[in-house]
Amino acid sequence: MLLGKELYLFFYRYGIYGIFGIFLSTLLTSILLYQAFHFITSHSIVSYKDFINKLFSQSNTSSLPINKGSFDFGTFFHTIITFFLVVSFFIMIAGFGAYFKQEFNVSPLLGSSILALFCFFLFHKNIEGILKVNSFLIPVLIVLIIYFAIRSGSSLLPFSLYEFISYSPDWKWILDSILYSSYNSILLIPIMIPLRILFKKE
Question: pTM of the prediction?
Answer without folding.
Answer: 0.70
